[in-house]
What we know:
Layout: E1 23-29, H1 37-49, E2 53-59, H2 62-70, E3 76-80, E4 90-104, E5 126-127, H3 137-148, E6 154-155, H4 165-170, E7 176-179, E8 191-193, E9 201-209, H5 214-226
Parallel strand pairs: 1-2, 1-3, 5-6
Antiparallel strand pairs: 3-9, 4-7, 4-8, 4-9
Amino acid sequence: AHLLRERSKAGGGGTQGGNGELGARRRSHSSTVRMGGPLLQGISTWLERCPGVSMDIVKLAAEAQVEEIADGRLEVGLLRLPVLRQREGVRVVPLYREQLLLAVPPNHRLARNTAPIELEQLKDEAFISIPHPQRGGLSYLSAELCMRAGFFPKAARVMSRKTPQLQLIQAGFGIALLPKSMQDIAPATVHFLPLADPDCLSTVALAYAQKPSALVEQFCQTLHECL
């Protein structure tokens, strides 16, 4: 999830954001929201429109982003729905939807499968990420999709909720449902397979204060334009 926080900027200078705000804006994103393609184009376009502003990008879990925004320490976040613990004064707005794929190790029995995978085929598989009781996001969505197919995902012996998921899959510890964009950063030996269920989609959302600054409004508008 991406969040923003103001910092003072040495050297001063003006912005074209319309409100005189200066400095580095700190944004955070969920580990499964890949910073590439149209998202980076949106950030680039926004920075061109605000020459007196710079950006520091970090990673935070979705619920942590919401907490930081609610407490006024950060301004904007990029996260995956659902968010289980929302806070008053924080707006969560869908930005785009992304296809989910099945990621399997190199020698997995399904690695060379040519037909789309039915979720029911995964009931005996080990998943390297299962939902946290108080967190939403991709792992929660994956479990929800599996439960609709009649089973709860079985936990792998080694698990992760962060970026090393791809390395754990490559090492053969288990499988995962991952956004299509993760293919771009995955090891070449990890196989991505289509899923038959058309509902296997993940929504990326923007989180920000109910009463955002002019810069935040401009940032959100720019991302919507580019996506």
